TrEMBL record, chain A:
<dbReference type="Pfam" id="PF00180">
    <property type="entry name" value="Iso_dh"/>
</dbReference>
<comment type="similarity">
    <text>Belongs to the isocitrate and isopropylmalate dehydrogenases family.</text>
</comment>
<dbReference type="GO" id="GO:0006099">
    <property type="term" value="P:tricarboxylic acid cycle"/>
</dbReference>
<dbReference type="InterPro" id="IPR004434">
    <property type="entry name" value="Isocitrate_DH_NAD"/>
</dbReference>
<dbReference type="InterPro" id="IPR024084">
    <property type="entry name" value="IsoPropMal-DH-like_dom"/>
</dbReference>
<dbReference type="GO" id="GO:0006102">
    <property type="term" value="P:isocitrate metabolic process"/>
</dbReference>
<keyword id="KW-0816">Tricarboxylic acid cycle</keyword>
<feature type="domain" description="Isopropylmalate dehydrogenase-like">
    <location>
        <begin position="20"/>
        <end position="343"/>
    </location>
</feature>
<comment type="subunit">
    <text>Heterooligomer of subunits alpha (IDH3A), beta (IDH3B), and gamma (IDH3G) in the apparent ratio of 2:1:1. The heterodimer containing one IDH3A and one IDH3B subunit and the heterodimer containing one IDH3A and one IDH3G subunit assemble into a heterotetramer (which contains two subunits of IDH3A, one of IDH3B and one of IDH3G) and further into the heterooctamer.</text>
</comment>
Automatic annotation (TrEMBL), chain B:
<keyword id="KW-0809">Transit peptide</keyword>
<dbReference type="GO" id="GO:0004449">
    <property type="term" value="F:isocitrate dehydrogenase (NAD+) activity"/>
</dbReference>
<comment type="function">
    <text>Catalytic subunit of the enzyme which catalyzes the decarboxylation of isocitrate (ICT) into alpha-ketoglutarate. The heterodimer composed of the alpha (IDH3A) and beta (IDH3B) subunits and the heterodimer composed of the alpha (IDH3A) and gamma (IDH3G) subunits, have considerable basal activity but the full activity of the heterotetramer (containing two subunits of IDH3A, one of IDH3B and one of IDH3G) requires the assembly and cooperative function of both heterodimers.</text>
</comment>
<feature type="domain" description="Isopropylmalate dehydrogenase-like">
    <location>
        <begin position="33"/>
        <end position="358"/>
    </location>
</feature>
<dbReference type="GO" id="GO:0006102">
    <property type="term" value="P:isocitrate metabolic process"/>
</dbReference>
<dbReference type="InterPro" id="IPR024084">
    <property type="entry name" value="IsoPropMal-DH-like_dom"/>
</dbReference>
<dbReference type="InterPro" id="IPR004434">
    <property type="entry name" value="Isocitrate_DH_NAD"/>
</dbReference>
<comment type="similarity">
    <text>Belongs to the isocitrate and isopropylmalate dehydrogenases family.</text>
</comment>
<protein>
    <recommendedName>
        <fullName>Isocitrate dehydrogenase [NAD] subunit, mitochondrial</fullName>
    </recommendedName>
</protein>
């Protein structure tokens, strides 16, 4: 499974030592998965209180004011857990309205500059490449997703990709700090500087400059297309990968596909899971809550609730390892509810 | 028999790349002249290998070797040597080995120059799992068609202020329509069931939105071919889990670059992947897409498979299916037998031994 997180400072502990967390279930199976999280947290007696918001581009539950409400809640609570907010494709041609999806907008407004995806093979569930342990760090406030597009001449659209030294240095420093903190040995920068000489060239240069400040960590670079090829042939050569926005999107998904069958993988971008709403599963009680539960566990670790974090993740891993209760995406017949109940019964309280 | 069924599938995939214009023919006494660009590094040795095999197969091909090192033309613009251009314009068909991309030579990459000179707008890469060369992915049978003239590789970059760079991705109606039409034509001519447009229109709403819109429009004229759309990240996710769900993929430049290399990785790497570039005036240049491998150049260690399979793709394009099938079969048989494999395929043999084995098989087939 892949889990990801965005790092910011730990929110202050409260007087009644309950943490307040913003919850945005999103579209598709998001709401069902959030229910699973709430049930497990209740059973494990986790001191977290959720502030729920229903934000959706497709269900007409969205507006600028709503988004602002959610963002200010996130800013207050400092920690949030969210599902995927589907981008409405119909808005494609009505680009006068909004050029930016809510996803991108919230990332930029909250300055969530780093998206970290930890790709880890699940023990007990084997795929083509087992025992994988990669970390993918993606810059997500600039690059190709700056949403600066214009039609200068009819029939010709230009889309701007912006790379700045400041943000490149920031993500590089984040990557090396992360590697140092987690005891990782190598950081590889992913780029296309042979073609985009100025843009990716600047990114690469910034990474190299930061690398010099961390002599204990090995630094390498690789071109994006070669990187993709190497990931499917020999993913074990990589440790921590750092890259700009678009490549990050691609590599995240690629790496996630390497370790698990489920059609979505989780990211903790302010602790978010279920990037793909998995539309066919809605309401049928078949979605796999694993990713969302592991996301929630990671979130607890970030809140320094180590004990509860481990309790939840151990329970989930136990259920997967035993192999008796499996949802359909992992080849079984269990419903989401059954899986959730199995996790609850495995909580080592 | 499984072997035959598989071979005919492969033949079907690496089949004709027909364009709407009539097949170019420069036949004199039934022989097609092809411009051969050996390239750098291991280029010359693998080109020699291909020529030997073609000779053994008695293929009616005459090779015209040309060099494409950039020269400065009148007006100071870099261009390919006039002899090379003349040869390609006359023959229309070319086979190219790997070219070195110099880092600071002052001129753009040769591949880029070739692309601009002949308006090679479509890059076609059929990826089929090779029986006998095992990878974790055994059921790959897809084709990536990549728009090759614009998109993220327009080369337009500016330094706005110190520390801020802007790169421009250009998408035009014309180029999008052209590549979409090519993709559907290819699907129709090669009996492929579906075409999938790969994009990121949820993020790049105007640019990829335009590309997608054009694909949808062209799809209307090809009702016999199924048309689907998929986000780039979803494609990547699904590609590494179950590549058999994909058929023909069409996409803009950058995504094409990444996906075509990803697919090459699924079947075993660039050393075994063929590739063809289709241009505007019936020009088609087939090439091996691996690097020049300077570390093994001249040591008789190179693997000519990629260039050979590209040459086979070329034979089919010209209509010489008989010879194409013969040579391809010989190549796959040699790989399957595993007796004379080059180092990158897991063996210990020399390039010349590998080549000789294929020649022998081809001759035995007559």
């Amino acid at each position: 499974m892949t889990s990801s997180q965005n790092v910011s400072e730990t929110p202050p502990a409260r007087a009644d030592s309950t943490f307040k967390v913003t919850m945005v279930p999103g579209d598709g199976v998001g709401p069902e998965l959030m229910t699973a999280v709430k049930e497990v947290f209740k059973a494990a007696d986790v001191p977290v209180e959720f502030e729920e918001f229903h934000l959706s581009e497709v269900q007409n539950m969205a507006s600028e004011e709503k988004l602002e409400e959610v963002l200010s809640s996130m800013k207050n609570n400092r920690v949030a857990i969210k599902g995927n907010i589907l981008t409405c494709v119909m808005l494609l041609f009505d680009h006068k309205q909004y050029l930016q999806s809510y996803e991108a907008e919230s990332s930029i407004k909250l300055d969530l500059f780093a998206n970290v995806v930890h790709v880890n093979s699940l023990p007990g569930y084997s795929t083509r490449h087992n025992n994988l342990d990669l970390v993918i760090i993606r810059e997500q406030t600039e690059g190709e997703y700056s949403s600066l597009e214009h039609e200068s001449v009819s029939g010709v659209v230009a889309c701007l990709k912006i790379i700045t030294r400041e943000k490149s240095r920031r993500i590089a420093k984040f990557a090396f700090d992360y590697a140092t903190k987690k005891g990782r040995s190598k950081v590889t920068a992913v780029h296309k500087a042979n073609i985009m000489k100025l843009g990716d060239g600047l990114f690469l240069q910034s990474c190299a400059e930061v690398a010099e400040l961390y002599p204990k960590i090995k630094y390498e670079s690789i071109i994006i297309d070669n990187c993709c090829m190497q990931l499917v042939q020999n993913p074990y050569q990589f440790d921590v990968l750092v890259m700009p926005n678009l490549y990050g999107n691609i590599i995240d998904n690629l790496a996630a596909g390497l370790v698990a069958e489920p059609v979505y993988r989780l990211r903790i971008n302010c602790f978010e899971g279920a990037r793909h709403p998995f539309a066919q599963a809605v309401g049928r009680n078949i979605a796999n809550p694993t990713a969302m539960l592991l996301t929630a566990s990671n979130m607890l670790r970030h809140l320094n609730l180590e004990y509860h974090s481990n309790m939840v993740s151990e329970a989930v891993k136990k259920v997967i390892k035993q192999g008796k209760v499996r949802t359909s995406d992992l080849g079984g017949y269990a419903t989401s509810d059954e899986f959730t109940r199995a996790v609850i019964s495995n909580l080592a309280i | 028999m499984a072997g035959n069924a598989w071979r005919s599938t492969v033949s079907r995939v690496m089949g004709d790349i027909k364009t709407q214009s009539p097949q170019p023919r420069t036949f004199s006494r039934g022989i097609q002249t092809v411009t051969l660009i050996p390239g750098d590094g291991i280029g010359p040795e693998i080109s020699t290998a291909v020529m030997k095999i073609f000779e053994a197969a008695k293929a009616p091909i005459q090779w015209e070797e040309r060099n494409v090192t950039a020269i400065k033309g009148p007006g100071g613009r870099w261009m390919i040597p006039p002899e090379a251009k003349e040869s390609m314009d006359k023959n229309k068909i070319g086979l190219k080995g790997p070219l070195k991309t110099p880092i600071a030579a002052g001129h753009p990459s040769m591949n880029l120059l070739l692309r601009k000179t002949f308006d090679l707008y479509a890059n076609v890469r059929p990826c089929v799992s090779i029986e006998g060369y095992k990878t974790p992915y055994t059921d790959v049978d897809l084709v990536t068609i990549r728009e090759n003239t614009e998109g993220e590789y327009s080369g337009i970059e500016h330094l706005i202020v110190d520390g801020v760079v802007q790169s421009i991705k250009l998408i035009t109606e014309e180029a999008s329509r052209r590549i979409a039409e090519y993709a559907f034509e290819y699907a129709r001519n090669n009996q492929r069931a579906s075409v999938t447009a790969v994009h990121k229109a949820n993020i790049m709403r105007m640019s990829d939105g335009l590309f997608l819109r054009k694909c949808r429009e062209v799809a209307e004229n090809y009702k016999d071919v199924k048309f689907t759309e998929m986000y780039l990240d979803t494609v990547c996710l699904n590609m590494v889990q179950d590549p058999s769900q994909f058929d023909v993929l069409v996409m803009p430049n950058l995504y094409g670059d990444i996906l075509s290399d990803l697919c090459a990785g699924l079947i075993g790497g660039l050393g075994v992947t063929p590739s063809g570039n289709i241009g505007a005036n019936g020009v088609a240049i087939f090439e091996s897409v691996h690097g020049t491998a300077p570390d093994i150049a001249g040591k008789d260690l190179a693997n000519p498979t990629a260039l050979l399979l590209s040459a086979v793709m070329m034979l089919r394009h010209i209509g010489l299916h008989g010879h194409a099938n013969k040579i391809e079969m010989a190549c796959f048989d040699t790989i399957r037998e595993k007796k004379v494999l080059t180092k990158d395929l897991g063996g210990n043999s020399k390039c010349s031994e590998f080549t000789a084995d294929i020649c022998r098989r081809v001759q035995d087939m007559d």
